[in-house]
Amino acid sequence: MPLTLWLSLAAICAMGAMSPGPSLALVLRHTLGGGRFVGVTAAIFHALGVGFYALLTVWGLGALIAGFPLLFQLITWCGAAYLAWLGIKALRAGQAGALQPTVMTTNRGQAAKEGVLVALGNPKLILFFVALLSQFVTPGMSALAKAIIVLTAMIIDGGWYVLVAVLLSHSRILPWLQQRAHWINRITGVLLIALALRVVAGPLV
C-alpha cells in the first residue's frame, strides 16, 4: 500500500474514532469511575472489538466487489448515507453530547467486558467500515494489505481512546472538553459529511 494511500486511511480512521458517541462515553465513564488504568482497559478492549468488525468487513468486501459489483455499489451508497446521517446528527448535537457520561465506580473486568460489548453490540460499525474500507479494498488485494488495513483501524481506535483515558485522568481536562463539545461536534459533522460525499464520488485506489 503506497504511503499516501495509507495516510488517507489513517486520517479517515482517526476521524471515525474521534467522533463523539457511545464509545467515547464508555471510556469517559470508566476513566472517571475507575481511574486511568480502568479507562485504558476499556479503550484497548474496545479496539479489539473494532478490529474484529474491520476484519470481517475486509474479508467480505473483496468477494463482494468481484462477485456482485452492483450489490457492492448499493451497500457502499447505504454506508455513505449513514456517514452523512452521522454528520448531520453531530451538527445538531447539543453542547454536552457524549462528554457528560453517568459516573459510577468500575473496575478493569467491567471495563474490558463493556469495551468489547459496546463495539460488537454496535452493528452500525459494519456500515461505517463498508463505507470507509470500500475506498481501499480491491478484489486481488494481498493478505498483508488487508492486515495493514485492519491493524490501522484497530491501533488508531485504541490509541485515541487510550489517549482520552490518560488525559482525562487529569481532572482539569474534562471541563475543558465539555466547554468545547459543540465545536467538536460541528467539526466532526462537517468531516463526516465530506467523507460521505467522497465515498459517493468513488474509490481512492
TrEMBL record:
InterPro entries with a match to the protein in the record: LeuE-type
Its record classes its membrane topology as: Multi-pass membrane protein
Identify the keywords attached in UniProt to this record, alphabetized.
Cell membrane, Membrane, Transmembrane, Transmembrane helix
One Pfam entry for this protein is LysE
- Localized where? Cell membrane
- Return one GO MF term: amino acid transmembrane transporter activity
- Residues spanning the membrane: 35-56, 63-85, 116-137, 144-163, 183-201
Q: Which GO terms describe its cellular component?
A: plasma membrane
Main subcellular localisation = membrane
Protein name per UniProt: LysE family translocator
Q: Which organism is it from?
A: Vreelandella glaciei
